[in-house]
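Appendix B, Record 12. Input sequence as logged:
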Amino acid sequence: PPPSEGQPPRESPTGIALASLVNRIMEDQVALRAELRKDRAGLAHSVAVEVIEAQRAAADALPEPEPRISRVWVALSALFATTTLTLAALLWGPWPETTTPLDASDAQPTAERQIDKQAFEAELRAEQTASQGRYLQAIDALQWAINQQTWVPFDAQPFDDTRAELVRGLLERLAATGFQGRVRIESHLGEFCLVGDPAGGYRLAPPELPIEACTLLGHPQDDSSFVADRESVGFAELLKSPLATDSGISVELVAHDRTHSLTQVPFRPDISRAGDWNAVAERNNRLEFSLIPHGG
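Logged structural output:
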């Protein structure tokens, strides 16, 4: 909830909740990969049995006088081939469209093998689609969580050293999940009740001041859309670090002026004092995070 009248606003920490959410996402991904590997192995084994039976049938048709030796070589060849197919399925996913025949009698795959192959590929495609859907849902949940506590006090830079640490933690957790894409961070301005200060600038009005007595309803940076006006040296250095340049995750900063800043919390029509007004204004003076995977 917004701070009570007359009290300085405080930001609620998000690190613990964010870490817990990311840990759940990572555990789900590990369980999913284990389940997928198990399914692949089962399907590949089924196909291997079909191949071996087909090769044994072909061996029985070979001429004598050395049937035992012929059957051994065919069985070993089939075992080697199916082991290779199993490893390929486990490591690389769907089988290629064609396979190299073991001998001239096996130039065309049997109908049963073709059906198994198609079922195998269909199962993998379905699991990959479901996995991608669950991953995107997890990213959406993470985006929602990080956006819950991102309002910025009037006298603080939106992209300051404190928020640099928040972003650093977010990038580390995203990298741990294998996320590849963009982190877009937008700075929106709140509409504060301000009065002049001795230096010729503006400061927050006293909490009990009537709204009608405000010198300015707005923000000193209403006419600025320059990121440099809202960025600390520490934040700029973070964006030059390997975490933001070599991890496959890029960070995009946007500074909105008054015209393009979006109000998240509306002002109640019965607000009459500066303290209540500025409590709402601070909720709108915020950062907004968007997680955009590659291809999104």
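The first strand starts at residue 181 and ends at 188.
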